[in-house]
Design goal:
single chain, alpha+beta, 2,3-Dihydroxybiphenyl 1,2-Dioxygenase, domain 1, eight-stranded mixed beta sheet, 5 helices
Length: 317
């Protein structure tokens, strides 16, 4: 039996101006900046992590900051995650409509999706965001931000994948990652893992194959699924490779270990461990306060800091 994954671990998108990104996600949405680091594969650029107070898996949205003059905007289309959905309590709909309006953010009229109200909007780079208003267990700790505790975002609800062939992706996710089909409505196919934690559903939407989506600010780079530890990750990797599914070797991301693969529709999947977590290199109360680098980049710290633009960080006191 294939090793299963357990909902969304994190989602990584691309931003333009890193300061604008920080101001929006901490100041407007009230998430906590839980890690300030660099893209380990491109250390001249920031990698920003936002989540709940502890940066729990299932709450973390991260960004590679492509702020150079040549960074063309991303384009949503087939082969991409095209919407990232957070969850909030049902009574918070009016609060979030008013808050987003006060910050000059246009919202679409709320729609019903699988029996739950959904409010859609975009971040400053054009990334598709949603808030799903639903009763959920307390899966995250409130962020130390500006949002009243009764209305705070409670981690991921789901993500939407746009695909030219949704059936092929659905079959792949059922066969190799342990998802099950739990509903179909209004052109959406909803898959869910058996975990009761946050970020379990994913919606597949079939779209015309051209033009495909492309990377750039406002686009999602990849979506990561949870696996408890390195042992479970290794079992999945062995199973995938034994059956001819191409997957990367294990990559050390300091805060988790990762493998990568592409599903048939072209979306980049990551499978990331829940451990060791964001407190592995700084105390929990000081998450996101200063630039953290992995050990193999520490010797380059001076050069890296000089290449990065200065940032005004949120006050997490």
């Amino acid at each position: 039996m294939t090793e299963k994954v357990y909902g969304i671990h994190h989602i990584t998108a691309i931003a333009g101006d890193p300061q604008r990104n920080i101001d929006f996600y901490t100041g407007v949405l009230g998430l906590r900046l839980v890690k300030l680091t660099v893209n380990f594969d491109d250390p001249g650029t920031y990698h920003l992590y936002y989540g709940d107070e502890q940066g729990r898996p299932g709450t973390v949205l991260t960004f590679f900051a492509w702020s150079g003059a040549g960074a063309l905007p991303g384009r949503a289309g087939a082969g991409q995650v095209t919407a990232v959905a957070f969850t909030a309590p049902p009574a918070s709909l009016a609060y979030w409509q008013e808050r987003l309006h006060e910050h000059g953010i246009n919202t679409a009229p709320p729609v019903d999706r699988f029996g739950e109200p959904v409010l859609a909007f975009r971040d400053p780079d054009g990334l598709g965001l949603e808030i799903v208003f639903t009763e959920t267990p307390a899966r995250s700790s409130p962020s130390a931000g500006p949002i009243p505790v009764d209305h705070v975002l409670r981690g991921f609800h789901s993500a939407t994948l746009s695909l030219s062939d949704g059936e092929a992706t659905a079959a792949f996710m059922r066969r190799w990652l342990g998802f099950t089909l739990t509903g179909e409505r209004d052109g959406r196919r909803r898959l869910t893992t058996e975990d009761d934690g946050s970020g379990t559903p994913v919606d597949l939407v079939t779209v015309p194959p051209a033009p495909n989506g492309c990377m750039g600010p406002g686009a999602v780079h990849h979506i990561a699924w949870r696996t408890p530890d390195e042992e479970s990750q290794h079992r999945l990797l062995v199973e995938l490779r034994r059956h001819g599914v191409e997957a990367s070797s294990v990559r050390d991301r300091t805060y988790f270990r990762s493998i990568y693969l592409r599903e048939p529709g072209g979306v980049l999947f990551e499978v990331a461990t829940d451990t060791p977590g964001f407190a592995v290199d700084e105390p929990l109360e000081r998450l996101g306060r200063e630039l953290r680098l992995p050990p193999w980049l520490e010797r380059q710290r001076s050069d890296i800091e000089q290449a990065l633009p200065p940032l005004r960080l949120p006050n997490n006191e």
